[in-house]
Design goal:
Distance between the termini: 40 Å
CATH architecture of the largest domain: 3-Layer(aba) Sandwich
Order of helices and strands: EEEHHHEEEHHEHHHEEHEHEHEEH
Strand content: 15-25%
Strand order of the largest sheet: 7-10-11-3-12-13
Number of domains: 2
Shape: globular
CATH topology of the largest domain: Rossmann fold
Length: 381
Amino acid sequence: MIEKIHIQNFKSIYDLELEVGRVNLFIGENGSGKSNLLEALVFVSASESNMLANEFLVSRGLRVPEPELMRSAFYQKDKKRNIQIDIQFNVNNIKEYVLVNDNTEYSKWYDLNFRIRELDIKAIYACEKGIQKMLKPEYKKDYVSEYKQLLHSLKSKQDIQLESFIIFSPEYEVLRNFYNEGQIQPLGVKGEGLYKLLKVVNSYEDKSYIKTIIESLQLFNWFDNIIIPDELAFGEKKLIIKDKYLYTEIDQRSTNEGFLFILFYVTLIVAKETPKAFAIDNVDSFLNPKLCTKLMTLITDLAKKYDKQIFLTTHNPAILDGIDLKDKEQKLFVVSRKKSTGYTRTREITVENKPKSATNQPLKLSEAFLRGYLGGLPKGF
């Protein structure tokens, strides 16, 4: 998992470092830089795949302005300064990304360190082969073993699934009509491909995965079961949903928005084919406040069970009441802009600095947020 992120000269983020957990929730007023934090991870994800073309970045949820505005536009001198993003997975594994663009028309971004990372592993392979050729047979075993250990260590760094990071912003019409897969598989940023992925999960030999999805939907007291038909007309996509109060079955086009969003989130976390690390922007969309609270708890439980790392943004205070600050794997950040400079900054809310009421009694995070004790609320009106 990602443990620490250091971002310099990217959009509203001039220089920011934060330690993250398994489930990370960002709150703050509009324009504070919440989405920019997530987009920085998309940027390095694309660099891992050497796919920094604008169309690839957009397909993963990054808003791509002109190159000068991709950088922090606080100072004239910085319009050609490189963007640098460092990702720490553990003490011994830090990846540095230096993203460059010459600001000319139609110019593309590239990562100065991409070739270095690519050549490192090739060099280790070459050294291993060279040692095997040079050493006498009686010495080969010891030296080759050392290089194999080094090779394994380097390869393990390359295997981290950062290259598949996506910011998901599902849309109701896409989920309702089961749009086909987009450019990104198995799920597109708007929710494309959900029907096919559900069929894949349903085909797993281990039926506990689809069972988890169905059990998670019990959040809706009217829900009984879902069935994925085996035989449908060519091109037809239909999910049978059983409402315990209705004498007839319905499909995804007749159910409510909140149900489809929860179905999407749970499938995204549970499925084997989805990214190990991803983000969801405005996770509270179409959801009742009480359901928001329960969703946060559900997301955390499933992230631990299925080993996913998740980054979330929200404007709904009810989401905050589902987070457990005593759990070190759950983190809450308030995102704001520094008054003197406009830089995006973050403040982590912990058990120790969590606000209390005037009588020193525990206060719900939702109430603390609405009262302005956490920050992250507009002050201009």
